[in-house]
Task: inverse folding
């Protein structure tokens, strides 16, 4: 999957009820400018690594991640760490977008 497809998956996961229950604001993960109430269409420029974001949002939504293998290949155990953190109620720090 390319970056744009991963971002689209992240937006879909972000809008899932389980992730919405976390009360995370889109500004934490995407550049949204001065807007407070952001629509899904505005979530196009990620602040964080989208593959790591996909792993985190997948864990929060209780769905299998499509990027976990890629993240673990870049840094062994990174995706597993992100998943465990979310499952224990934490929000892990994600790497900045390239």
Result:
């Amino acid at each position: 999957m390319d970056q744009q497809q991963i971002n689209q998956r992240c937006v879909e996961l972000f809008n899932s009820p389980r992730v919405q229950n976390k009360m995370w604001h889109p500004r934490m993960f995407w550049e949204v400018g001065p807007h407070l109430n952001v629509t899904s269409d505005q979530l196009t420029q990620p602040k964080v690594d989208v593959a790591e974001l996909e792993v985190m949002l997948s864990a929060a939504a209780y769905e299998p991640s499509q990027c976990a293998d890629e993240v673990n290949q870049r840094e062994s155990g990174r995706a597993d760490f992100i998943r465990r953190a979310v499952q224990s109620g934490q929000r892990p720090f994600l790497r900045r977008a390239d």
